[in-house]
């Protein structure tokens, strides 16, 4: 689920398959494609897929009971590998494009979480959005605060475009709107994150 969002996919799905000796290598039984909405996080997509998966499992059992199921051999050459996620995978690289950072924050929420550093402390990014028109100066160092929106949160330069941080969780604190974080931690234009 996380890797589908991390890779910027717009569609994922559920498959029922026969078990065999390999890891996920058995014949396919039924499949259902599922759209990944631009606002989906790993958590919301998980909930969507669990509901659809339960329904697909019931349909599969009904077809098996009736003898109306068709076995479809997998194309093992088209298989992809999704490595296990580690907490370190959540570290934001501000050199990446804004769209990739956006997908990372969504794909790693709620676990393991995307994070950066500010004033020597870890802060989790819980909700962000890609912004337009703020990253025009190529001399700006990615990770630099380029604008402040007192109602929503700071706008940060990335390797390509900019990101507005909407919700954040400082180390050992509860989640908060990023506008509150800016006031409480005196975040100002020109400050660089990940320091």
Please explain how this structure is put together.
The model has no long low-confidence stretch (mean pLDDT 92). The longest helix is centred in the first third of the chain and has 25 residues, at 42-66. The chain has helices at residues 2-6, 42-66, 98-107, 178-185; strands at residues 11-17, 28-35, 114-118, 121-131, 145-149, 153-157, 162-170, 176-177. The protein is of the alpha+beta class. A hairpin with a 2-residue loop joins strand 3 (114-118) and strand 4 (121-131). The chain is 25% helix and 27% strand. Strands 3, 4, 5, 6, 7 and 8 form a 6-stranded antiparallel sheet that branches. The chain is elongated. It is built from 4 helices and 8 strands.
Topology:
Elements: H1 2-6, E1 11-17, E2 28-35, H2 42-66, H3 98-107, E3 114-118, E4 121-131, E5 145-149, E6 153-157, E7 162-170, E8 176-177, H4 178-185
Antiparallel strand pairs: 1-2, 3-4, 4-7, 5-6, 6-7, 7-8
């Amino acid at each position: 689920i996380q890797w589908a969002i991390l890779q910027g996919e717009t569609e994922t799905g559920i498959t029922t398959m026969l078990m065999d000796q390999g890891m996920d290598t058995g014949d396919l039984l039924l499949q259902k494609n599922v759209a990944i909405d631009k606002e989906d996080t790993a958590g919301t997509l998980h909930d969507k897929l669990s509901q659809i998966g339960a329904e697909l499992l019931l349909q599969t059992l009904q077809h098996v009971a009736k003898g109306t199921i068709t076995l479809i051999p997998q194309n093992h050459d088209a298989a992809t590998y999704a490595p296990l996620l580690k907490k370190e995978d959540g570290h934001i690289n501000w050199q990446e494009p804004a769209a990739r950072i956006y997908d990372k924050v969504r794909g790693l929420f709620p676990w393991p979480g995307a994070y950066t550093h500010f004033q020597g402390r870890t802060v989790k990014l819980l909700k962000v959005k890609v912004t337009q028109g703020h990253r025009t100066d190529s001399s700006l160092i990615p990770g630099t605060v380029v604008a402040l929106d007192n109602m929503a949160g700071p706008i940060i330069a990335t390797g390509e475009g900019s990101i507005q941080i909407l919700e954040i969780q400082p180390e050992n604190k509860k989640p908060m709107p990023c506008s509150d974080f800016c006031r409480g931690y005196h975040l100002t234009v020109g400050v660089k994150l990940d320091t």
